[in-house]
Specification:
Elements: E1 7-11, H1 13-19, H2 23-38, E2 42-50, E3 58-67, E4 72-81, E5 92-99, E6 106-111, H3 113-131, E7 138-142, H4 146-159, E8 163-167, H5 171-185, E9 189-191, H6 195-199, E10 204-207, E11 228-231, E12 248-251, H7 254-257, H8 266-270, E13 281-282, H9 283-287, E14 301-304, H10 309-326, E15 330-333
Helix pairs in contact: 2-3, 2-10, 3-4, 3-10, 4-5
Organism: Imbroritus primus
Protein name: Ornithine cyclodeaminase family protein
């Protein structure tokens, strides 16, 4: 082992900030991962969870996958701890490990906190690209955590909304969220004090709430015909009737969505409202052209994504390559 002379690349959060990944770079990287999935060129192991102690009000998600066109396997561990804001930390902190899939040799360790946020927003935006109306002009967004920023930013990069509404449980959180968006997007953000005024009759509705237990706060009657809805909170915030009004039900990976105890549509799976029979497609199948996306303005569509290891690996790969071009990152001795 000591004679192998192996190195791996370590990329920390400060170096990732210096990379200044553009919206287009993020979307393109994540889309390539989804395309590989749609073409059957990936392996996805369903995520698993580690709950150290219920008193900590959080858990770890472990995501694993392989993307053949990138010649990379990867494992990401992300902590999701709701009370982190009380000690000045993001709720989600993550690390991505990339490996050579043929030998198991470690390739890179990357701070995946940005990756988690940005790839989640990219999947939301790519879902809208294929399933929302092209003339969507009003966005209603519930939630203000890290992934929320990239949901709004990347959606806006595609749609250039006339109106963006945001809401979250804590006023200080939603106000700070709106201020950041206004600064970065250069447009007025409407801060609402309740769920209904945020999402009623919006063209695109994203629910990224952080509930302690399933609570149907988003009412089906608020969703207008022709809208596109993305619920992805860990705990369900939607009514059981939400899927009844949908033309197409799409997920990121059915293997992950059909199992486990968490997720915004868990009750819908258990009730048989979301099943192999009612599922229209995985998003990768649509991107690969194997299933149609939106086919008319009359469709009311839903996209549920639980988070793909493939998206982490694809964006991690793009970050690794850009860091190499810019001379960023550190070489660590492995063996």
């Amino acid at each position: 082992m000591n004679d192998l002379n192996l190195n791996l690349t370590y990329i920390n959060g400060k170096d990732i900030a210096k990379l200044a990944m553009t919206d287009a770079e993020i979307l393109d990287a994540v889309e390539q991962g989804l395309l590989a999935q749609g073409n059957g060129q990936t392996t996805i192991e369903p995520r698993v969870h580690l709950c150290p102690d219920p008193a900590f009000n959080g858990h770890f998600n472990v995501l694993r996958g392989y993307v053949a066109p990138l010649n990379l396997a990867g494992v990401k561990i992300v902590g999701d701890f709701v009370d982190n804001y009380k000690v000045g930390l993001p709720s989600e902190l993550a690390m991505l490990n990339l490996f050579n899939p043929r030998t198991g040799v470690p390739v890179a360790m990357i701070d995946a906190t940005f990756i988690t946020d940005a790839r989640t927003g990219a999947v939301t935006a790519l879902g809208a690209k294929h399933l929302a109306r092209r003339n969507s002009k009003v966005l209603g967004h519930i939630g203000a955590r890290g992934t929320s920023y990239w949901n709004v930013r990347l959606l806006n990069s595609i749609y250039d909304f006339d109106e963006i509404r945001v809401h979250s449980r804590r006023p200080e959180s939603r106000n700070a969220f709106a201020e950041r968006l206004e600064r970065d997007l250069g447009k007025k953000i409407v801060v609402t004090e309740d769920w209904e005024s945020c999402v009623r009759d919006a063209d695109i509705v994203v629910e990224a709430s952080r509930l302690e237990r399933p609570t149907p706060l988003l009412k089906t009657e608020w969703i207008k015909p022709g809208a596109f809805v993305v619920p992805y909170g860990t705990m369900s915030a939607v009514e059981l009737s939400l899927t009844d009004i949908m033309t197409k039900l799409v997920v990121d990976d059915w293997g992950q969505c059909k199992g486990g105890i968490l997720g915004s549509l868990r009750a819908h799976v258990e009730a048989g409202k979301l099943s192999e029979q009612t599922l229209h497609a995985e998003l990768g199948e649509i991107i690969a052209g194997k299933k149609p996306g939106r086919e008319s303005d009359d469709e009311t569509n839903l996209f549920w994504h639980r988070g793909l290891s493939l998206s982490d690996i694809a964006l991690g790969h793009a970050i690794l390559k850009k860091a190499e071009r810019m001379g960023l990152g550190q070489q660590l001795v492995y063996a």
